[in-house]
Design a protein that fits this description.
The complex is a heterodimer. Chain A is α/β, with parallel strands linked by helices. Helices cover about 45% and strands about 10% of the residues of chain A. A 6-stranded parallel sheet of chain A has the order 2-1-3-4-8-7, sandwiched between helices. A two-stranded antiparallel sheet of chain A has the order 5-6. In chain A, helix 1 (about 10-35) runs antiparallel to helix 9 (about 270-280) and helix 2 (about 50-60) runs parallel beside helix 7 (about 215-230). Chain A is globular and about 60 Å long. The termini of chain A are far apart. Chain B has helices at about 5-20, 45-50, 60-75, 95-100, 105, 135-140, 155-165, 215-230, 245-255, 270-285, 315-325; strands spanning about 1-5, 25-30, 55, 80-85, 115-120, 145-150, 170-175, 180-185, 200, 205-210, 235, 240, 260-265, 290-295. The longest helix of chain B is centred in the N-terminal third of the chain and has 15 residues, at about 5-20. Chain B has 2 domains: about 1-185, Rossmann fold; about 200-325, Rossmann fold (3-Layer(aba) Sandwich), CATH 3.40.50. Chain B has 11 helices and 14 strands. By secondary structure, chain B is of the alpha/beta class. The chains are: A alpha/beta, B alpha/beta. The interface between A and B is large, with 41 and 35 residues. The complex binds thiamine diphosphate and magnesium ion (MG). Thiamine diphosphate sits at the interface of chains A and B. Magnesium ion binds near residues 148, 149, 150 and 181 of chain A. Chain A: Its cofactor is thiamine diphosphate. Chain A: InterPro entries: DH_E1, PDH_E1_Alpha_Subunit, THDP-binding.
Amino acid sequence: MSDIAQLTSSQLSSMYEVMCKSQALELRILKGMRSGEFATIIWPARGQEAVAGALSLALRPDDRLITTYRGLHDHVAKGVPLVEIAGEVLGTSVGACKGKGGTMHIAAPEQGLMMSTGIVGSGLPVGVGLALAARFQKSDRVTAVTFGDGATNTGSFHEAVNLAATWKLPVVFVCQNNLYAEMTPVEETMAIPHVADRAKGVGMPGITVDGNDPVSTYLAIRGAVDRARAGEGPTLVEAVTFRFEGHYAGDQMKYIPAEQLEEAKKHDPMITFRETLLSHPEITEEHLAAIEARAAQEVDEAVEAAKAAPQPDAAEIERDVYAERLVAGNV
Amino acid sequence: MSKKATIREAINSALDEALRTSAQVFLLGEDLADPAAGVNAVTRGLALEHGHDRVLNTPISEAAIVGAAVGASLEGMLPVAEIMIMDFIGIAMDQIVNHAAKLRYMSAGRTTSPITVRAVVLEGSGAGGTHSQSLEGWFMHIPGLKVVYPSTPADAKGLLLSSIFDPDPVLFMEASRLYGKRGPMPTEDGFRIPIGKADVKRQGRDITIVTYGPATWEALEAAEALSAEGIEAEVVDLRTLLPLDLETVLASVAKTRRAVVAHHAVTFGGPGAEVASQITEALFNELVEPVVRVGAKFSPIPARASEAAVTLGTGDIVAAVKKVAGAVRV
Ligand SMILES: Cc1ncc(C[n+]2csc(CCOP(=O)(O)OP(=O)(O)O)c2C)c(N)n1
Ligand SMILES: [Mg+2]
């Protein structure tokens, strides 16, 4: 862990709170799926909460974020109401997208969450466009785009980072390198040791950090955000972490060696960060327990509300294909 | 010889035979090699049997997957590229449409690109708009391509082998919801179903349901329900969309004089429009009623249970048939 003295106890607590809510939300959904309480699919980010904590502290409310199908933690980080996340996951009308988008496609522009994509790599070019718009609109807001290690093998990644670097756009590219792309270990699909090395080729800084440590991840992302806001262009931050629940909920993870998983769990950010926090002179066990209890309660309420809400009705399902409904018969 | 097998096993068996009998064949795609062997376990055992140098795991790079297949095919190889979920095919579209499909023509036959692209339709998973589409209509519009979409284990095996060894590029579609479907599957090497041949899956005198892929099963289910009401539907499974087996379709409709076209692709501008138009042009005077199309509603596919509100169901086919043939028995 890096030096927590660089942050105030309230900054540290707020990161921990985001992490707790993210963990509690996923565990609650997984529990519901496993017990048959409801059916859905999620791509869990359990294990990657430190990145969400860091993003939540590094971004301003008006800064933008784009994430992926593995994005529930990022949605929490950007302040999307828990009931909107849970509703979308369950496909009910209180969801951020009225239940029509689903887990993979959550958007909440009021909180600056402009898109979540189910297409690997596709968030990066869109993030470049968000940043371009900020420049046109003379806003100093910054865009963060987050994605996995596997996404850095797509053409979209390479085209987007080059464009952002060439145009010196205010973007921060945050790679959550969890060492696997579905079932494929990262080293099988790239010939360089670090994703961050890819930055050199387009002329922008690339930093690799311990993505299980919210403090060093925050410091790296914050530095990149400050650079972007100052007009100095994009940065690629690679946060090295791990996912504990498989690619999708229910994935048996046969392709992950048991020793690797066991070792990774020793660096579970929820455990290690908690221990670190307790070493802070102003942070007590009671304080952390209160944060955890609050997170659990808010998550429970959100999931109950999401469950109680109806599915989108027929009129809702027909809405939003276009701004105005096309005349029946013409389609 | 024949045995009961699932479509998953049939596709695996076809890939196995192709790899075993031709040194030109190789597979490439995301996560398809053992031990992972893909999200759908379709390629299980093939890398162990034939080597990881012939069953290649790729990075998430669809343009490069299909582009590399095109390149290798120019050198005489017979690559089978996998697009894990069809919705991702847009990224490889340039390679398929502007290269694989046109190289033979544009080089006046001096180069050819006999690739096979396997693309999986995930409708039924509730995953939402970017993981559920049936996009065959896009490819039917491209001269130079062939498009195949089987519904049974035997058809899947025979058509996949025909696709791999076909001299032209073939888009081979698979519905993940049909992977577990069981049926007889010939086991001997050399079994083939020709590309461009439809199959009458059910005989009937009153109306023809022209369909393909997973909709074949809904059409058969609809036909049973209609039979109880005295309407006997003939079900023609196209199996290949490009080239279309018009002969079989027209022979059936000439007999029944009524037709419904059913598919999971969006109805508007979809494959059914082409089929309906061809039937109408050829049999205008024979038809008792206009040909009716049923497919997905004109909407992105919503997530979770709402999916069913937009996608094709057996009830849609029954309703369409009743619209066209409702007066048959009176
Ligand atoms: C263009 C595209 N190709 C393939 C897929 C299927 N797919 C979904 S997630 C995934 C792995 C992505 O790995 P990574 O970028 O490391 O993100 P992670 O899931 O590990 O967070 C793949 C191949 C997809 N969604 N989009
Ligand atoms: Mg990954």
